[in-house]
Amino acid sequence: MTQRSVARIFWFLTFTLWLPIGFLLPVLVLTLVERGLDLSEIGVVFTAYGLTTVLLELPTGGIADSFGRRPVLIVAAILQAAMAFTWFAGGTFGAFVVGAVVGGVSRALSSGPLEAWYVDTIHAFDSEAPIRSGLAGAEVAGALSLALGSLSVTLITFIPGIASDETALSAIRLPMLLATGFAVIGAIAIAVLMNEQAPAVHSVRAALADVPVVVRRAFDIARRPGTIQLLLAAGVLLGLAFSAVELFYQPMFRDMVDSTASATRLFGVLALGLSLASAVGSAVASRVPEGGRIHPGQVGAVSFVFVAAGVVGLSLSTTVLVGAAYFIGIYAIAGFAHPFSQQILHAGVSASERATMLSGWSLSFQVGVLITGLGLAQIAERSGIPSALWLAAGALVSASLLYLAIDRLRVRDEHQKVSSSSAS
User: Fold this and answer.
1) Which residue has the higher pLDDT, 278 or 385?
2) Which of 193, 284, 332, 374 lies most in the core, judged by the most C-beta atoms within 10 Å?
3) Is 424 inside a domain boundary?
4) Domain-embedded: residue 301
5) What CATH number did the domain enclosing 346 receive?
């Protein structure tokens, strides 16, 4: 394989892993609303997903580092199919909680191994090879797969006979069945295309025995004052903010349209816009030269202030058009900022810890999801969705301050290097 072929496989597998989510995204919260769940119950479903992910993020990252990224990703894709089918077949609060737990396991397994495989495979060719362009390309691939799934959901609403939620293959249920099928296809693609050097540990039992060591090392890194600690703290705040937008935008926009079919169609278009905006943002980020005057911490600080302004604008929106503009703008800026956060993370960890710390980064997001499910959902139920979104905007401003602190550490380290060079 060449570096270019590795990147293409990375992009394609990213596309296949996110395509099922593209089918689920436009109808995820709408399904719960239309089945009679209130915001507090929806918050419990989100909490079940987030709590499962939080408990398993680091152990599964350790398994991926010890046992292998490929088998872990295959299991993740299969569980993704199980989650989608559970939501397709179920219709009760309990079924949705079970689906959320299965989805949380899948998320924990999938958050990190593919990206870690790409970075380590590229560095096997050249330890100094730039990676941001490849990471940004994966962001584009994932966003385009979300766009394709979302567009398909919108088109589904025009099929005669399934516009309502009264049939087994309704406009809400059919996307979940399609997500199930594409998740299975994703598992097959991983098995066929992803090659990796055999890890040192060859049995699941040995890998599980090695997990506490890997996880302890990850906590040691996270506890050390410095870039990674600040980045993980920012991840909690970002997870809170973006999960709040994902949780509340569908109930908020549902009140602006007159039917379930119209809402499904609207959310398909919004998810399509979200995906394309994120892809454009990531594509722009890939064009920014590495090692230039633009530094990752500075980009994160400025970007998330703008995202906070977008969240406030969304909370104040009273029409679909205005709200959609803010919503899409939020994800365009976030798509631009994300590769810079990845760059900060990868610069601070070694190859043996990469998948585990990527899981740690994802875990920090899921802690934010937990806070949204347990706290912001209750606030939204009692005080209204705008109040919860204002708190999310405040979290984004706080995250921007942490990115500024990351940049200050960069400046300090550069000054120390200059001083050391002068002294020698």
Assistant:
1) 385
2) 332
3) no
4) yes
5) 1.20.1250.20
Q: Of 70, 111, 84, nearest to 21 (Cα)?
A: 84
Give residue 323's pLDDT.
Answer: 92
Query: Residue 279, CB half-sphere, CA atoms under 13 Å: how many?
Result: 19
CA distances from 149 to 17, 25, 312, 334 (A): 12, 8, 28, 20
In a domain, 183, yes or no: yes
pTM: 0.73
- The domain of 317 spans 3-418
Phi/psi of residue 159, nearest 5 degrees? -75, 125
Q: Measure the CA angle with vertex 345, ends 2 and 416; round to 5°.
A: 110
3-state secondary structure the chain: CCHHHHHHHHHHHHHHHHHHHHHHHHHHHHHHHHCCCCHHHHHHHHHHHHHHHHHHHHHHHHHHHHHCHHHHHHHHHHHHHHHHHHHHHCCCHHHHHHHHHHHHHHHHHHCCHHHHHHHHHHHHHCCCCCCHHHHHHHHHHHHHHHHHHHHHHHHHCCCCCCCCCCCCCCCCHHHHHHHHHHHHHHHHHHHHHCCCCCCCCCCHHHHHHHHHHHHHHHHHHHHCCCHHHHHHHHHHHHHHHHHHHHHHHHHHHHCCCCCHHHHHHHHHHHHHHHHHHHHHHHHHHHCCCCCCCCCHHHHHHHHHHHHHHHHHHHHHCCCHHHHHHHHHHHHHHHHHHHHHHHHHHHHCCCHHHHHHHHHHHHHHHHHHHHHHHHHHHHHHHHHCHHHHHHHHHHHHHHHHHHHHHHHHHHHHHHHHHHHHHHHC
Q: How many domains does the chain have?
A: 1
**What distance in Å separates the CA atoms of residue 114 and residue 358, rounded to the nearest whole number?**
10
The reported pLDDT for the residue numbered 415 is 59
Region 356-373 average pLDDT = 80
Structure tokens at 309: 């302004």
pLDDT for 242 equals 93
The burial class, CB within 10 Å (0-12 / 13-18 / 19+), for 256 is middle
Q: Torsion-angle region of residue 109: left (phi > 0), alpha (psi -120 to 50) or beta?
A: alpha
Higher pLDDT, 59 or 387: 387
pLDDT over 70 at 43, yes or no: yes
Q: Is residue 423 part of a domain?
A: no
- Look at phi and psi of residue 259 and say left if phi exceeds 0, alpha if psi is from -120 to 50, else beta: beta
